[in-house]
Amino acid sequence: MQSDQDFSTHSQSPKNSITVKKVLYAAFVMIIAALSGLSGALAGGAAVYRVMDKRLSATEYAELIIPTATPVPSQSLQLSSTTLESGITSAVEKIGPAVVTVYATVPGSVSFWGQMPDQQVSGSGVIISEDGYIITNNHVVEDAKSVSVILSDGTEYPAQIINTDVYADLAVLNAEGAMPAVAVLGNSDNLKTGETALAIGSPLGDFKNTVTVGVISATGRMLDTGSGYTMEDMIQTDAAINQGNSGGPLVNLAGEVIGINTVIVRGSNSTSTVAEGLGFALPSNTARIIAEQIIDKGYFARPTMGIRWQSISPQLASRYNLPVQYGAYVLQLMEGGPASAAGILVDDIITKIGDNEIDADTSFVNALYGSQPGTTVPVTVMRQDETLTFDVVLGETTSN
């Protein structure tokens, strides 16, 4: 673009004379656009581009520009924020009545001074049926002598423990009485990193139905419990989870339960660094499978293949040049376990269990839980670039 000095020096040139007129026209248009608001300015800019070659008069320029100078509503700039806030409040209104506070009385510990008095611990839970079935964490009610739940309106009911699954840290309770609402369990396999998540519960047992907001930080996390087993396929969130939130729901903007808040991590054993915003929840699909079996049979028998594994995502597949987008990478085999006995090897990638293909909607855990312990299922694996199928007799693990 030429400078003002260039225009002045060459003003006698016919070509540059036309250019001067173009600039004057553009300046006139910009004055009109400024009076017409932001959208007029944008429309005016477009008009300048369209009519330069037509060499219209100033009146024609004005007639072209002014009809399109419609002010931009100021609230349009706040649309996404307003929509998010509306989604949060709507989700809270939907799920709130189905969230409960769980109180458990546990025997006091034995110390040098003898038997200590019974203690009361608290957590959270969520109602999953009109019949009064409630899910919470196993560690909230573990070894409890008695359990009670307090509804969102303050009503208190005694509850009994139907059964628990230690490995998923899940417990199913039943309370007799009218339930104010029933939570909808969403599909946790559809979660995307970065989407909004709400944690609802009763931190410290006192601040009932507290809501915190964050995002899904990651999915498919594995946590070493330090008790000889690993919690698999966990959801990571930065929504604040405090003591007393355990067993409460992690919720999406549709008001659906997508996880059961289970544990927070403040640091590691190998460093003194303290971390914040590291909360983990059991996926709702896993919680549903376990809870339904406990309600139906009175216990949960967990199928097992005897492997340690790493979930594969498209990102990992691209980074490490893997042959599939989804699957379970076999890290370790239990000697004599189901997978080892069938011929599966370390570094194989499991892509299908029975009729359940591992993909964006179905994780390894939920593909595995689609079959019963003791049954023989075909398991498809990728071994380098070769697809193989093995018949695996699934083992059984129970926490009772």
Give me the secondary-structure topology:
Layout: H1 4-9, H2 14-36, H3 38-51, H4 58-65, H5 79-95, E1 99-106, E2 110-111, E3 114-115, E4 119-127, E5 133-136, H6 138-141, E6 146-150, E7 156-165, E8 170-175, E9 196-201, E10 210-224, E11 230-237, E12 249-251, E13 257-264, E14 279-283, H7 284-297, E15 302-304, E16 307-312, H8 314-320, E17 327-333, H9 338-342, E18 349-353, E19 356-357, H10 364-368, E20 376-383, E21 386-393, E22 395-397
Antiparallel strand pairs: 1-4, 1-6, 2-3, 4-5, 5-8, 6-7, 7-8, 9-10, 9-12, 10-11, 11-14, 12-13, 13-14, 15-22, 16-17, 17-18, 18-19, 18-20, 20-21
Compact description:
With 400 residues, the protein is an alpha+beta fold.
Model description:
The protein is α+β, with helices and mostly antiparallel strands and 400 residues long. The chain folds into three domains: 4-68; 94-297, Thrombin, subunit H, CATH 2.40.10; 302-397, PDZ domain (Pdz3 Domain). Helix content is 26%, strand content 33%. The protein has ten helices and 22 strands. The protein has helices spanning 4-9, 14-36, 38-51, 58-65, 79-95, 138-141, 284-297, 314-320, 338-342, 364-368; strands spanning 99-106, 110-111, 114-115, 119-127, 133-136, 146-150, 156-165, 170-175, 196-201, 210-224, 230-237, 249-251, 257-264, 279-283, 302-304, 307-312, 327-333, 349-353, 356-357, 376-383, 386-393, 395-397. The protein has a six-stranded antiparallel beta barrel. The protein has a six-stranded antiparallel beta barrel with strand order 9-10-11-14-13-12. A hairpin with a 4-residue loop joins strand 7 (156-165) and strand 8. Helix 2 packs antiparallel against helix 3 and helix 2 runs parallel beside helix 4. The longest helix has 23 residues, at 14-36. The chain is globular and about 60 Å long. The chain starts with a helix and ends with a strand. The model is unreliable at 1-24 and 27-79 (pLDDT under 50).
